[in-house]
């Protein structure tokens, strides 16, 4: 019963990260120079929400004396968010295509 209470308010953060990831991916296919800043901003927001989700899980787990170990997938997603932010920021600031 405690697990349902713990996870009931963690899910909205996970869903928000998923929605922002899909939105950022969809916006990254636009060709306009101005549109490359939107995936950068959305990636940063998803990165922050993912860190908030990790913090919330760690806090809840420590309150219930549970140890959480994050697998390689979590850390890989964080690195990929940083890469997406850097790539889209680079494309925005250094793109020669002036619209």
**What would you call the structural class?**
mainly alpha
Largest sheet: none
How many helix segments?
4
Query: How would the global form be characterised?
Result: elongated
Tell me the span between the first and last alpha carbons: 56 Å
Helix percent reads over 70%
Our count of domains comes out at 1
**What's the alpha carbon Rg, rounded to whole Å?**
17 Å
Indicate the mean pLDDT. Answer: 84
| H/E topology pattern | HHHH
Task: Kindly describe this structure.
The protein has 99 residues and is an all-alpha fold. The protein has one domain (2-94). Helices cover 74% and strands 0% of the residues. The chain has helices at 2-7, 11-27, 37-63, 72-94. The longest helix has 27 residues, at 37-63. The radius of gyration is 17 Å and the shape is elongated. The N and C termini lie far apart (56 Å). The model has no long low-confidence stretch (mean pLDDT 84).
Write a brief caption for the model.
The chain is mainly alpha-helical and 99 residues long. The chain is 74% helix and 0% strand.
């Amino acid at each position: 019963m405690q697990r349902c209470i713990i996870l009931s308010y963690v899910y909205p953060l996970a869903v928000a990260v998923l929605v922002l990831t899909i939105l950022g991916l969809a916006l990254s296919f636009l060709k306009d120079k101005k549109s490359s800043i939107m995936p950068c901003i959305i990636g940063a927001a998803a990165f922050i929400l993912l860190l908030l989700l990790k913090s919330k899980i760690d806090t809840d787990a420590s309150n219930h004396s549970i140890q959480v170990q994050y697998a390689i997938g979590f850390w890989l997603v964080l690195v990929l968010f940083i890469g997406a932010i850097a790539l889209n920021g680079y494309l925005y600031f250094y793109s020669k295509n002036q619209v």
